[in-house]
Sequence to fold (244 residues):
Amino acid sequence: MSHHIVEFKNVSFRYPDGTDALRDISFRITHGEAVGIIGANGAGKSTLLLHMNGSLMPTSGTVNIGDLYLTRQTRQEIRRKVGIVFQNPDDQLFMPTVYEDVAFGPLNLGMDEAAVRERVEVALSRVNSLELRHKPPHYLSCGKKSAVAIASVMAVEPDILAMDEPAANLDPKSRRLLINMLKTFAHTKIIASHDLDLILDVCHRCIVIREGMIVADGPSKEILSNQALLEENNLELPLSHQRD
Fold:
């Protein structure tokens, strides 16, 4: 399914202050792959994800989502294909109630009221947050906001799911629900996270970024058991691989 493909070709990105955040990045993610993006703080993980739906545009190189090259003209269509969960849920939640936030995407797709209601209830149930549907999101805890932000993206049922630190603010039960949900998402998913156990559990492939460059790309089991590689990139073995 070509519309589920993500391909970066020689992508570089420089912020207005002159910071080179991505440097000649190239990779291809095919339909149904689950790929983890790991690296130290400031390595370029968030910047990379923001290129997947045109929130940022490359300084040079090309981004291809399915059969569309990312341009300012194709950006809106690409955003219907790629759902991004941002690291800070406050960047994603802006409606008066949780229900309206989660309903926003399906409504924009032109769905009728009954279908929207079903999408909202299913999405909120998947993140254990259905009881929050009438609450104002700005009064919620950070963890609950994160759960609602995830639901707002899942309600659109995107072809490609990209998530930036999705488990960072979740309690253990919500984290386990997230992992189970991600395992049932059959389409392409890309997850940037410091939670290496989550990456190991969900993603079969792992890309390591350092200073805006790819330094490793391979099976998660191999990369996340390579202590020397992880330490070179200011990372530690997943907790499940650490000895007492």
Summary: The first helix runs from residue 45 to 50. The mean pLDDT is 91. The two ends are 45 Å apart (CA to CA). The chain has nine helices and ten strands.
